Amino acid sequence: MPDLEHKDDMWALLDMWRFSLALVEDRTALVAGPMISADFRDREGAPVLAIECGDPWSILMRRLCMAPTATNPREAASNVQLGPNSLAGLAAELVEAALDRPAGDLPLIIPTGLPAGSHGRVYNAFDLAFFGERLTELSQVSDGPELDFHPLLQDEGATIRHEVRIGAPALFQAGEPHVYDYGTTLSSLDVDFDGSRNAHSWWVRGDGMSVELLYGYASSDTYTNAGWPRLESVDSSHTSTREQELLDGYATANRDTYGDSIYTYGATVRWDGTDPSGRQTGAPHIANVRLGDHVMASVQDHPLLPDVDLVFRVLGIQATGQSDPTLELLN
Prior knowledge:
Layout: H1 7-13, E1 20-25, E2 28-41, E3 48-53, H2 56-60, E4 80-85, H3 87-99, E5 108-109, E6 119-123, H4 131-140, E7 147-154, E8 159-166, E9 178-181, E10 186-194, E11 201-205, E12 215-219, H5 222-225, E13 232-235, H6 244-258, E14 262-269, E15 294-299, E16 308-318, E17 326-330
Parallel strand pairs: 5-8, 9-15, 11-13
Antiparallel strand pairs: 1-2, 2-3, 4-6, 7-8, 10-14, 11-12, 14-17, 15-16, 16-17
Helix pairs in contact: 3-4
């Protein structure tokens, strides 16, 4: 039977964006974020409530990139000006600027002591862009910082704050890579070959039209000289950008990222790092794996891959229901 005694409490908690949920394992927060949508299905004997949650990125994608006192986006005083700083430092400044908006406080831990630099940015309020978009754009330039919002239990588990992890440019863990063995702690290893965005010459549309169009450009003959056909592409996701350095940076990053096919791997690993018999192996508990971490997989007798030890970086972590988690990996 459904728990009718507490249904009023459940109803009161289903305020989207106001309340958050967290998945906690051994006093470690694995994921946490605000509820965004909920779907209840009245099924006899086993009603189901499915809740979709976001993370701090979700909130920053709903917060306009404007100065704290902005009232008119056409005024220069409404713009957000950052720097001089490193690209990683600019990312931290962007997050701080987002928190400075009215009623903008969030439970975030912003890093200090990031490298210095000479980069600067002026984000015009009249573009009506979101802080999340600006952070994404910053991460997409050449040597742009990787970012992650990692939940941490605080106050003996009473509260959760998110550590803002900012790479300079890459995220990584201290110490040795996590080690998994194919067939024991790593039960399956899928491979995805994606050449859908391959191009060796990249044009990036900036602000303007016709002969006044600003654009960035980057090209490489490495692959065409080795026998690939010439492939060209246009990136139209930065049409409000007016700075030539930024446009060229986007083009360079696209060329370096998509010059060759992207090989990603889906590694299904044991939740607690034990082997199928429940014995400890030295592989990590999933609670100790974070985005950007390095993973070494000893691969033997895989139906496609050669017998070799491979080193990957963790791009994402996914799990559904009670199934073992899957690590999205980049070689």
